[in-house]
Amino acid sequence: MASEAEKTFRRFAVFGESSSTGTEINNKNFSKLCKDCGIMDGKTVTSTDVDIVFSKVKAKNARTVSFQQFQEAMKELGKKRFKAQNPDEALENIYKLMEGKDPATSGVTKATTVGGVSRLTDTSQYTGTHKERFDESGKGKGIAGREEVTDNSGYVSGYKGSGTYDKKDKN
């Protein structure tokens, strides 16, 4: 049975890595795990520390670390993060931080209509001639909202005798 720490390790190992089996974790996801679980606090443990420890525990030309190596890394980081405690207690605390954690997707770009777009599409804020093209609910009135409806009668605009052609005497 996998420990809580190992389960968390696996969840982060496969995060965003479709080819990952969850047995090894790359540096990006290792950093993410440290950040999301609060192991990296920006004071005692910084992203640089995390990168250094990752490089230290991985094999020379490997790009990932196994759970075994990961545990080594956590011991190292535990010593930094919980200076006052002995290494075993520090490691316990690190694992406590990891319990039940999932890769957070906060700060991931969401599609939103902010600022510029919402301002342009809010019909209640329209002024001038554009305002008349929408009713109070913001629904467009369609062609009725346009003042200049096209006259397809065939007469030039402003012609007084429009519609009189057929009425003329045909002698």
TrEMBL record:
Residues 121-171 are annotated as: Disordered. Keywords: Cytoplasm. Residues 129-149 have a biased composition (Basic and acidic residues). One of its GO terms (cellular component) is cytoplasm. InterPro entries: EF-hand-dom_pair, TPP/p25. GO terms for biological process: microtubule bundle formation; microtubule polymerization; positive regulation of protein polymerization. It is found in: Cytoplasm. One of its GO terms (molecular function) is tubulin binding. It comes from the Eukaryota. Coiled coil: none annotated. PANTHER family: P25 ALPHA-RELATED, TUBULIN POLYMERIZATION-PROMOTING PROTEIN FAMILY MEMBER 2. Belongs to the TPPP family. This is Tubulin polymerization promoting protein family member 2. It comes from Molossus molossus (Pallas' mastiff bat). The lineage of its organism: Eukaryota, Metazoa, Chordata, Craniata, Vertebrata.
